[in-house]
Design a protein that fits this description.
The chain has about 425 residues and is of the alpha/beta class. The chain has helices at about 20-30, 55-65, 75-90, 105-115, 130-140, 160-165, 190-200, 225-230, 260-275, 280-285, 290, 300, 305-320, 350-360, 385-410, and strands at about 40, 100-105, 125-130, 145-150, 170-175, 205-210, 235-240, 250-255, 325, 335, 340, 365, 365, 380.
């Protein structure tokens, strides 16, 4: 039998997910060899002692016997109604609970939405840097990513005029990630309104990834896009993973807002795809109503004195004292995205540096190129560890950068 029969599909050639890629595989090898690592590559709250509220666990335990059978393909009726009411309280008008879909995490729902929407060759406007699942799901469903830049020089915010200029007759959707992963940017109201206008003018579907909604710092405000988009069709993604620290529940949701008649064909297509996978995890869905009743509890972690706020402060202070790094302070989400200064270290490859950092300093993080940024000088670090761990990681990064500078620039040579 020819070995060519087992060659992977060509559509995987441009798909990458460096967050759990070769660096992560090498990290597992090092740990198996007995080496302790500092892992800041994944936003996994419970791994850093930040667990789901007890009320979520209690809701699942109380309803566990009801989780045995298949459920409705859209999701548990009581959970979808709770999500509809929660949306209304946040200024999002949904036609009914039939416009709420529950899935096995936001990742599954992103894939379903793009599968329902795209024909081969259709274009999707994505932020750069992006969360790489968006690029991967676009390609795997026959689409073509077209990136709009969110540079550090602009606070990692996009420009509506630049996005408008990227639209072609094949453009179907505009994706926003707000608060942003990996940069921590939080989009202000005026920018969101300008992006809604781009979508309205060109007849684009808005896809708003809001999994970090509510995780904000120092007075920043994360606004749900659907509360501003009116009749413009908008798909909003949220879930239990981050705000409620329940990644392993694999429970996410998708809200369809905008003109009901325009949304009907897409809603029906999503229901078909949801039915094909039978139903989402039943156990996690029982936690949704309990979670929504605790929507503000993340503030204990993000306000001054809270764990996330303290680790963010350690990152900001550490970068300020660095000889090599610069940072746009994250206004939201659970990541920092510092960059290596070009004037100090002109030649820099983030992939090779990340591997060197892992091998020599035993720190695992994700290089910025893993977020579809060409020629990246960025490194993504999660803010989940305690502040003292962030300080230690920054010390190790500084040592590794000093070695590179010492090898490249004579003035850094040490006696």
């Amino acid at each position: 039998m020819s070995a060519n029969r087992f060659v992977p599909a060509s559509r995987l050639d441009q798909v990458r997910y460096d967050i759990r890629g070769p660096l992560s595989q090498r990290a597992r090898e090092l740990e198996q060899a007995g080496i302790d690592l500092l892992r800041l590559n994944i936003g996994n709250p419970a791994r850093f002692g930040l667990h789901a509220p007890a009320a979520l666990q209690e809701a699942i335990a109380a309803n566990l016997p009801k989780a045995d059978p298949y459920g409705h393909e859209l999701g548990l009726e009581s959970a979808r109604e709770a999500l509809r009411l929660d949306a209304a309280a946040r200024g999002i008008a949904l036609a009914d609970a039939e416009h709420v879909f529950i899935g096995n995490g936001v990742s599954e729902l992103i894939d379903m939405a793009l599968r329902a929407l795209l024909e081969s060759g259709d274009e999707v406007l994505l932020p750069r840097p992006d969360y790489p699942l968006w690029s991967a799901a676009t390609r795997l469903n026959g689409g073509v990513p077209r990136y709009y830049d969110c540079p550090a020089a602009r606070g990692h915010l996009p420009d509506a005029g630049e996005i408008d200029a990227l639209v072609t007759p094949r453009t179907r959707a505009l994706v926003l990630i707000n608060p942003n992963n990996p940069t921590g940017a939080v989009y202000p109201r005026a920018l969101l309104q300008a992006l809604v206008e781009v979508a309205r003018r060109h007849g684009l579907l808005l896809l708003s990834d809001e999994i970090y909604e509510g995780i904000v710092y120092d007075g920043a405000q994360s606004l749900p896009l659907a509360g501003l988009s009116g009749e413009v069709p908008c798909l909003s993604f949220g879930g239990l993973s981050k705000v409620w620290r329940a990644c392993g529940y694999r429970t996410g949701w998708l809200l369809l807002s905008g003109a009901p008649r325009a949304l009907r064909p897409l809603r029906d297509a999503l229901q078909l795809l949801a039915a094909l996978r039978l139903c989402a995890n039943q156990m996690g869905q029982w936690a949704i109503a309990a979670a929504l009743g605790l929507r503000g509890d993340i503030g204990a972690l993000t306000a001054p004195g809270g764990r996330l706020h303290a680790t963010r402060a350690a990152l900001i202070e550490g970068v300020a004292g660095s000889e090599f790094l610069e940072l746009v302070a994250p206004a939201g989400a659970i990541y920092g995205f510092p960059a290596v200064r070009r004037d100090v270290l002109p030649l820099f490859d983030d992939q090779s540096f990340a591997l060197d950092l892992l091998e020599q300093e035993h720190v695992l993080l994700t290089p910025g190129s893993g977020f579809n940024v060409p020629d990246s000088r960025h490194l993504r670090l999660t803010l989940l560890p305690p502040p003292e761990m962030m300080c230690e990681v920054l010390r190790r990064i500084e040592r590794a950068l000093a070695r590179r500078a010492e090898a490249a620039i004579p003035r850094y040579a040490r006696a």
